[in-house]
Records
---
Amino acid sequence: MVYAYNNKPGVPGFMMVCAYNNKLSVPGFIMIYAYNNKPGVPGFIIVCAYNNKPGVPGFIMDVVLTSGCSDALHQIISVLANPGQNCLIPKPGFSLYETVARSIGVDVKRYELLPNKDWEVNIEHMESQIDDNTTFIIVNDPSNPCGSVYSREHLLQILKVAEKHKLPIVSDEIYASFVFPGERYYNLAGLTSEVPILSCSSISKRYFCPGWRFGWIIIHDRNNVFEKEVRGALVRLSQRVVRTNSLIQSAIKSILEDTPQDFLASIIEAVAKNAHHMYREMCKIPGLQPVMPRAAMYMMIGIEIDKFPDFKDDIEFIKKMISDQSVLCLPGQCFKYPNFFRVVLTVPQSDITEACTRIADFCKKYYVA
Ligand SMILES: *Cc1c(COP(=O)(O)O)cnc(C)c1O
């Protein structure tokens, strides 16, 4: 079930298990006490783990607690691939995937996301990137930096590729609960009974507390593909350097249960409002092509770089925008996606309005039709 460092009586250890995986029919699964599987805390329930000691017959480790989602990714990549092998990551995508993979000698190959299709995966391209050394596919839905969230149908297409090539999926779900009003998030592991999935998340983004360093890996493995090697390796790795924060572990029940329902809803509403405002304003600026996000906290904006002859690429464009206007955005190259830039939408609305004006002034000055 769970490996919880602080799993003693009195300081209840917790584990988090995806609700759909939490059926007593799952072989060997010991479910003790579920108290938080209501909508509003989507995707998982927390189960008290007083009975989940190693040695208990049928023990299955379903959750590994980690020091944030970054640590979860580090552990997963370390376990799933050997040096010289590779994994597939999205382009544009969160830069940590490559940083972690390369740091342990694992190569990355990138599959394209399509800006004119709400950043859906180019499925043919994804498939073409798979070779004999490919060990897993990372999917980040909703996406940083794109702010996209995939439809059920599209996730099924991705799962089909993984199933066909017998590749597990690593699902970075840190923005799972962060979708704009009217949009819907589907949990990848809930859509397959074949593809083994290691999902990872943390409280960092959802509760705006990245410094608290608390995350987890959930093992979705209905067919026991991970049983022989991966589960054991994850346990051993989580024991090598114990990274979980016991203080937060003690508080996690309250964090997940007692946070007012409208806390997240009101933030999402504000971010969605910023997104709509920003999108409207960016559409008016000659030379820019924003892509409207549906989730997470970001928007990607394309730069028609040939219309800005003063700048060679997005990095020069952004550097100048910082020095001219004090507007700081990340150039697309940070996500291996040149001639775009990423805007963060979690700022007060007045700052978004001001930033729009400054970006417009900046573009007007350098645009050549
Ligand atoms: C911020 C972020 C992470 C890292 O989260 P921590 O819990 O702070 O380590 C991982 N993946 C994505 C997509 C992120 O945006």
---
Amino acid sequence: MISAHSATELLQELIRIPSVNPDGAPGQNATGEKEMAGAVGSFLESCGAVVTYEEVLPQRPNVIGRFPGGHGKSGLLFAPHTDTVSVRGMTVDPFTAEIIEGRIYGRGASDTKGTMAAMLWAIFELKETIPNLNTAVAFVGLMGEEAGQPGSKHFAKAHAEEFDFAVVGEPTNLETVHAHKGCVWLELSSEGRSCHGSTPELGDNAILKMTPFIADLIKALENRLAEFVDPVLGSPTVSLGKIEGGTSPNIVPSSCRITLDFRETPQLHAAGGSPALVASILEEMKIADLIAVRVIGDSVPLYTDPAVDGIKRLQSIGSSLTTAPWFCDAGRLAEAGLPAVACGPGKIDQAHTKDEFLAISDLNAGVEFYRQFLLSFA
Ligand SMILES: [Zn+2]
């Protein structure tokens, strides 16, 4: 139960409820989003919302609050995520929400409990006004943003068409991020047959099946990626981030895996994305039967037309239009047809850090910003 008397106290209470994404932090305070969703839900109820929970994964719900007075109106959605990254390596206490020299410290202070607190406090301050606005207002706390985005995928599929515009909560310094690349991780693997290292002729070395092709494959990919340049986001990229194979010097390795990180433009995504591109290049190189390809992670690119009403309103209260090198839940919502942007207080370089914080002045600026945004519908 939240009993905050200010946005600062609200953010402190949110930080004190650990909600580390269990997928991204095996064994480390992997407490999931359930308690956070419950706290946010009860706060939304205290602001007059009708609250529902949708369990996306066991014990890991999205929390949705719909405010009264919205019937027959266009729909505005606030959509921060409730999970955080792991706390490994942090040099400040992740969950005490200590205030030092005007900054609130803790995991999620910036990404993205700060944005969530600013959104919730603006809603709290305007709870009498919201039913009379020229828009329906809803809030969703999305689970699972930091690993695979199951929360926004689930929500977008079920609810995207109920809304006309979504503001996803991320620390953007209150700029409007309307475009970002998607990210796809592909694992390429080769299989062989292991045997003792003293008799390599009896085995089939999986590393030697893979490695002769890596440099040519990357070069071919880079050439083809240049065909999918986006005027705003630039060229898609590929990076070879990981290579694994073998278990011991005296064993011929039976498997080898490389992992490629692709940053996709909307054009590449629309053309089938990097899995299709890799498959066609492996065919051309005549090694498709040697190398297996598996998608181990993907998030979609974001592009929301700057002409949509919601972006015009954000600009009218001083937010400038920008793009981002990172990805977020806005891509999932936009993919389902809901125009979405990311816009929130704080700076992305404070996110995921060992001493994550949000300045109280930034938090309060965020509250005022979201208040002005809501009041643009008055
Ligand atoms: Zn985030």
---
Amino acid sequence: MKIGCHCGASIIDQTDELPHKGHLIPDQAWFSTNDAIDDEVIDPVADGRLGKEEAYHLARRIIGRSARLMWQCRACGRLYVDSRDGQLRCFVPEGEPADREVLRGGQRPAEPGAAPDTAG
Ligand SMILES: [Zn+2]
């Protein structure tokens, strides 16, 4: 998949674990998603009604049905979000410099003035 950004850059989505792609779960779906994992996956596994492999797939399917995809342009920081009607909606960041890594995984950088991370 390739998105042509309004700035002229291209957003490429051809592999997994992209630092500029995210999966958005609306808050109105958050609790029902967690409840579905409890009811449809964890409880049946605990009761022996569902196998481990089936549970893996079912949990991913439950999360996937609640999530919509989003991408960020690494050149300008615009966000593109799949809307409920299936259209790709563009959001422009305010302020300079724009944070171009809002969808990147991993830990947040340390707050200024915070104690240094001594864990290594
Ligand atoms: Zn752009």
---
Amino acid sequence: MVTAGAIANMQKQVSKRTELRMRDPAKDLAARILNRTIRVGIIGMGYVGLPLMLASVAKNIRVLGFDIDKEKVSALNKGKSPLKHFSDAKVAAACRDRLFEATIDMNRLSEVDIIIICVPHASRSAPGT
Ligand SMILES: NC(=O)c1ccc[n+]([C@@H]2O[C@H](COP(=O)([O-])OP(=O)(O)OC[C@H]3O[C@@H](n4cnc5c(N)ncnc54)[C@H](O)[C@@H]3O)[C@@H](O)[C@H]2O)c1
């Protein structure tokens, strides 16, 4: 059973964290990187974004991957790698361990602490360039 005292204690801890976040966002971010409570957003799950996601989850950093390609997002969430250089097993493990999820919903950018953009730019749109 959760006691009133335990709830009050949790509320105290949450307000302490919120206070630090407001007072010193950089320090708060650094602390959350170190204690692995940060969540990274990677936009573009291609040749750059996918290995970056795998490198992050290998360090126990949670990633929310964004892409406009619905099929790719759906495959990733089923543990399938869209690139032959990276095994399904690694993607599947990241999903299973709840370290990774992919989405097409850009509103979910509000859920992440850092955003890394890995999409093609206007002058070079061919994959892998
Ligand atoms: N691949 C390389 O070796 C390399 C090296 C250095 C720099 N870059 C740069 O990194 C960037 C990404 O390259 P890449 O090779 O990973 O590209 P890629 O084509 O392999 O992957 C891009 C991904 O972004 C998604 N995407 C496209 N527009 C989007 C949008 N508006 N919102 C969300 N997702 C979107 C695509 O569906 C795709 O899955 C490019 O700007 C490229 O110039 C790539």
